[in-house]
Structure formats: C-alpha cells, structure tokens
Amino acid sequence: MKKKVLIVEDELRIRELIADYFTGDGWEVREADNGQDALIWFDALQPDLLILDIMLPKMDGFTVCREIRRRSAIPVILLTAKSADDDKIHGFELGADDYVTKPFSPKVLVARANALMKRVEGAHLPETGIIRFGSASFNPLAHRLEVEGADVELAPKEYDLLWLLIRNQGIVISRDNILSRVWGIEFAGDSRVVDSHIKKLRSKLGYESRFIRTVIGTGYMFEDAE
C-alpha cells in the first residue's frame, strides 16, 4: 500500500514541485494551499506524513500543527522561509518532527521524509485505534478512556495531556514543553498547572497511573504501553 502525504503549501510552484517528487517516489499525494483546507484534507485522507508550510493563509502552519497534534501522532515536517532558532524551537514544541528551511532540494526533502518514516515506523496507533496499558484502554480518536471496563470522563486538558504523554511514551517531556503543547505558547500561567492536571489525571487512572512517571526536576514520562 502506498504511503500517503499531505502537502500544505500556498505557493503553487513549490507545492507542485514537491508533489512531483513524492509521486515519483511512489507516494499517494494530496495538496492544500491554506491552513483550513489542510485540516479538512487531513481528516478525509488520514495521511502518513504531513509536509506543512508555516506562512499560510486563513490559518498559519503553527496553528495547524497544534490542531493536528490533538488528533494524531503522524510525522510532521515544517517548511519555512524563516531560519530563526526561536521559530524552530516553537515548531518542535508544538510537536513537529523535522524542519526544512527554504530554499531546499525536493529530492533531499523526500529522502528526509523517508528517513523520518523509518524512524517512526510502528509508532502509529494499533489497527483498533485503541491503546491499552494495564487495565486501561484509551481511544484518542473517540476521546474515550476506560479503566477496568468503566468509562472515565476526562476534562479537555486532561485528555490533551494524556494523549501527549502516550504518543511520546518513553520520552521525558519537560513541564515547559507540556505547557506549550497543551496550553499553548501564549499561556501566561506557570508549570504548577501541569502538576495539578497530572494529579487529577492520576486520580482518575487509579492504579494505572503507575504508567505516568515523574522525572524529578524535569517533567513527566509515560512508560511503554502494550
């Protein structure tokens, strides 16, 4: 089965050039020229990879990336004319996997995409769409959590926090990083809100909260699930 890529770029010449190279490499390609259409196409296509320009009409790439990360852990490569470190850091904090600065070689972009896909192979959701850990089962697409067979109601930020930890299982995420990726870069509060939500989440998970590990002085990590 062909891998699917969604290319979001408002400059037609660049978008078509990228699409030609991915098509030639055997990918199934879909295109969007603005952020709002990108989200519509994403839901319809369920791509394996997202190539995302930052400077987009209707909705910028950072916002699109944040919204995608609420729905999926697919690899995201950001494209930008900006090379400032702050922009790159912001992209990574939102969950981007790689960053390519214009101008670039489409051939190299495809090679980087293939290398990224190899690194994350097997990191997608299981075919059932349900992630199991202990007696708990988590369906991120349905926003549903069950513990010992009983539904557990999560507040929106609790859901976002749990999904962030799960899709980065085995990786320590700092409190500041969690704040940026769950509450947004503009959030004016401090890291105590993370600790408060972790406490609430652990209470709802009960014994299965053992999968959320505190890394003293750094942040939190989700232990490998089944």
Write the SSE topology.
Blueprint: E1 4-8, H1 12-24, E2 28-32, H2 35-45, E3 49-53, H3 61-71, E4 76-80, H4 85-93, E5 98-101, H5 106-120, E6 131-133, E7 136-139, E8 144-147, E9 150-152, H6 156-167, E10 173-174, H7 175-183, H8 192-205, E11 212-215, E12 219-222
Parallel strand pairs: 1-2, 1-3, 3-4, 4-5
Antiparallel strand pairs: 6-7, 7-8, 8-9, 10-12, 11-12
Helix pairs in contact: 1-5, 2-3, 6-7, 6-8
Give the strand tally: 12
Strand arrangement, major sheet: 2-1-3-4-5
Helix proportion: 40-55%
CATH topology of the largest domain: Rossmann fold
CATH superfamily of the largest domain: Response regulator
What is the terminal separation in angstroms? 26 Å
Largest sheet: 5 strands, parallel
Structural class: alpha/beta
Number of domains: 2
Q: Helix and strand string, N-terminal first?
A: EHEHEHEHEHEEEEHEHHEE
Low-confidence stretches: none
CATH class of the largest domain: Alpha Beta
Query: What gross morphology would you assign?
Result: globular
Per CATH, which architecture of the largest domain? Answer: 3-Layer(aba) Sandwich
Structure write-up:
The protein has 226 residues and is α/β, with parallel strands linked by helices. It has two domains: 4-120, 3-Layer(aba) Sandwich (Rossmann fold); 131-222, Winged helix-like DNA-binding domain superfamily/Winged helix DNA-binding domain (Arc Repressor Mutant, subunit A), CATH 1.10.10.10. The protein has helices spanning 12-24, 35-45, 61-71, 85-93, 106-120, 156-167, 175-183, 192-205; strands spanning 4-8, 28-32, 49-53, 76-80, 98-101, 131-133, 136-139, 144-147, 150-152, 173-174, 212-215, 219-222. The strands form three sheets. A five-stranded parallel beta sheet has the order 2-1-3-4-5, sandwiched between helices. A four-stranded antiparallel beta sheet has the order 6-7-8-9, with no helix packed on it. Strand 4, helix 4 (85-93) and strand 5 (98-101) form a beta-alpha-beta unit. Helix 1 packs across helix 5 (106-120). 31% of the residues are buried. The mean pLDDT is 84.
